[in-house]
Specification:
By secondary structure, this protein is of the alpha+beta class. The protein has a ten-stranded mixed sheet with strand order 8-7-6-3-9-1-10-13-2-14, with helices on both faces. It has a four-stranded antiparallel sheet with strand order 15-16-17-18, covered by helices on one side. Strands 4-5 form a two-stranded antiparallel ribbon. Helix 7 packs parallel to helix 9.
Length: about 575
């Protein structure tokens, strides 16, 4: 009887064995090429191949060309090697609100750190800091370290340590593995630091102190057997007041003249169109211009040390052979006015010099020396970094990841139109006695993707408004709201009233002109299809469909500020 044959055994003779080994090695090489190629293009299948992330955050740094002329290393290592956003904005151009937006991904009307009043500054952030960027990254397996400034007000409490009353804080907020936060910082003498929760006193120059500790962290972390990917948040005091330079740079820029655009020390004809009290501000005299010039030069001197910091960090990354696997961001919390519109050393307003900030990114998959017109906001920074780390982003976040515009291999899970509309909000500051120091303003900026429309509309308290068409008036000289009939100015109001109350997904949807069907005081925006709803808001037709109506009363200009006379209070 014939037995059925079993599986035929492969008889690997020596020659066949060689062929088998060669084929096996060929398959391994193909797999290796596939993995490394996709890693270089933004895909990373394991924790060990996830990119590292660093962000430099300066304090009050503007985007004037003169600023970056003084920073050759930032130009060499970041701008020339990465992508520069030409249109990047701080939605609330003030230190505490902006830094909260960077770490939380929200407009200030949602995270509620609206100004720098003693009652409303850092003391409110601990209520929400359990769900911020470092917490998201920690869950994704990242090692997180902060070096430098956290918030104004951090650590300014009196505690008893070893039986002595000490001004400072031992608190290390959630999500951070390495914590080196400056408390009292005068650039040099008298700096105190929360060093992993222990108070450290030093006279080392502030930026140099950060540089030493960052480089030490990198060396120590990468010397570990299996180092995790890391996120570094490096926040300098420079170029903020009091503008003390490092000793080696004290004599630099002594002849440098302050830039004077047409908006500098604005003339009466256009200044008088501004809302009160700006319309009544006196022109800058020689003494004040001389002071602003001194400050301008001093700011540049402090940035020379920041430039050294950037160079040493990038060189250290290169020596450790991780530069090509690291995304590096460079930005600031807000800009600064240096005499424009007769304002000297001011930030908390809606003018371009205040809300525009630098934003440069270098890293895997980014084309060197490129510039983008895509609009980015400080509320986008947290979701952008989380996207790189593959960390989960909570639904309360108002911003969206910019990575699809930075590296084409990153995509949104949900498709969003490019941003063309966003909110700018300033809630003023108050003296401890309750007197308001700055005016309350909220507004919208409109920049169409084709750059055809570029506008700003801003509402002040005391029933005042501003509007500028930047295509005709890029320096924001003449307030067009003074000459435009009120019924046309009101065309902006429905959009502003709805976007000012947005939250989470609503903010993410309110991005494009096509989604808003906006008609402006300067004329209709073409290509906007009507949805047919034309009841209360006339020409602005699609807002209700997106928002299902605002939950705030239409009569409320500022949803959580109770304004009485010249005071504002946080509810």
């Amino acid at each position: 009887m014939h037995k059925p044959r079993g599986p035929k055994m492969i008889n690997l003779q020596p020659m066949h064995k060689c062929i088998f080994i060669i084929a096996f090695l060929l398959v391994l090489s193909i797999v290796y090429f596939f993995v490394t190629e996709h890693f270089s293009r933004g895909y990373y299948p394991t924790m060990r191949t996830r990119p590292n992330i660093i962000i430099f955050v300066t304090d009050d740094q503007d985007i004037r060309p003169e600023t970056f002329e003084a920073m050759p290393n930032v130009r060499k290592y970041l701008r020339d090697k990465g992508l520069t956003f030409k249109n990047f904005f701080a939605t609330t151009p003030l230190c505490v609100p902006s830094r909260a937006s960077i770490l939380r991904g929200q407009y200030s009307h949602n995270h509620r750190l609206i100004n720098q009043d003693p009652e409303n500054a850092y003391s409110l952030f601990p209520k929400i800091h359990n769900d911020t960027l470092p917490v998201w990254l920690k869950r994704a397996g990242y090692t997180n370290a902060l070096f430098g400034k956290y918030f104004d007000g951090y650590g300014l409490t009196e505690e008893k340590i070893d039986g002595k009353n000490v001004i400072g804080s031992t608190e290390v907020p959630p999500g951070w593995h390495r914590w080196f936060a400056t408390i009292h910082s005068n650039y040099g003498e008298g700096t105190s630091v929360s060093n992993n929760g222990k108070i450290l006193y030093t006279d080392t120059y502030n930026t140099d102190l950060l540089r030493e500790n960052v480089v030490n962290f990198l060396q120590n972390h990468m010397s570990k057997k299996n180092p995790s990917p890391f996120f570094l948040y490096i926040a300098t005091k420079a170029p903020h007041t009091p503008h003390h330079a490092a000793p080696e740079y004290e004599t630099f820029f002594e002849e440098k003249e302050i830039p004077r655009p047409v908006s500098f020390n604005e003339d009466h004809e256009t200044q008088s169109t501004k809302p009160y009290p700006l319309s009544k501000f006196a022109q800058l005299d020689k003494r004040r211009i001389k002071k602003i010039t001194r400050v301008f030069r001093a700011r540049l001197r402090t940035l020379l040390s920041v430039d050294d910091l950037v160079k040493d960090v990038l060189v250290s990354l290169d020596h450790l052979r991780i530069l090509n696997n690291t995304y590096i961001f460079y930005t600031s919390d807000n800009g600064l006015l240096l005499g424009e519109h007769r304002l000297s050393l001011e930030t908390n307003n809606n003018y371009e010099e205040s809300i525009r900030t630098p934003f440069i990114v270098r890293g895997p998959g980014i084309k060197e020396g490129t510039i983008t017109q895509v609009i980015g906001l400080n509320i986008d920074i947290a979701p952008t970094i989380a996207h790189i780390a593959k960390a989960r982003v909570p639904n309360f976040v108002d911003g969206v990841s910019l990575m699809p515009y930075i590296n084409k291999d990153f995509v949104h899970k949900r498709k969003f139109a490019k941003r063309e509309v966003f909110l700018v909000e300033n809630y003023g500051e108050s003296h401890p006695n309750g007197t308001q120091l700055f005016e309350v303003q909220q507004g919208i900026r409109v920049i169409s993707e084709d750059q055809k429309y570029d506008m700003m509309y801003s509402v002040w308290n005391y029933n005042q408004s501003e509007c500028y068409d930047h295509t005709k008036d890029p320096f924001q000289l003449k307030n067009e709201c003074k000459d435009i009939p009120p019924h046309k100015v009101e065309r902006f109001t429905p959009l502003w009233k709805n976007i000012k109350n947005c939250a989470g997904e609503t903010c993410r949807k309110l991005r494009s002109l096509s989604s808003l069907c906006l008609h402006t005081p300067f004329g209709p925006i073409t290509g906007c299809e009507s949805s047919g709803i034309n009841a209360e808001y006339g020409e602005l037709t699609a807002v209700h469909l997106l928002l299902n109506n605002s939950k705030q009363p239409s009569s409320s200009l500022f949803p959580f500020l109770h304004i009485v006379g010249n005071r504002d209070r946080y509810n």
